[in-house]
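I trust your eye. Have a critical look at both lines of this record:
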Amino acid sequence: MKWGEDGKRIQRLRDSADFVIYTPGSNAGLSISIMKSFSAPSPQLREDSELFQERITTTVTSLLGLLGIDADPIRSREHILISTILADSWQRGEDLDLGKLIQLVQTPPLPASGCST
């Protein structure tokens, strides 16, 4: 082969990797749905605080990215609010859908802090 890889090495790659095609909005491959990202993680994952926080951060960063918002997980009010909502709901094992998430963003089930009126 031109690039110096032999057939045995390529076959080892094929044997050790899963190759899939993701197809948003189609059944031709594995479909992609952001909505599944709002399902509460398993109890085992929720018990691992590091993995749980990583799932929240990834989900919120992806959601905000779809909205064209490049949000810092530490400083962004949007990121912090949605992360807090997901953590609160998921800790109780509650799945969310987009409508419920929007409702919780509009009326957060959290005490207001640091606000002055």
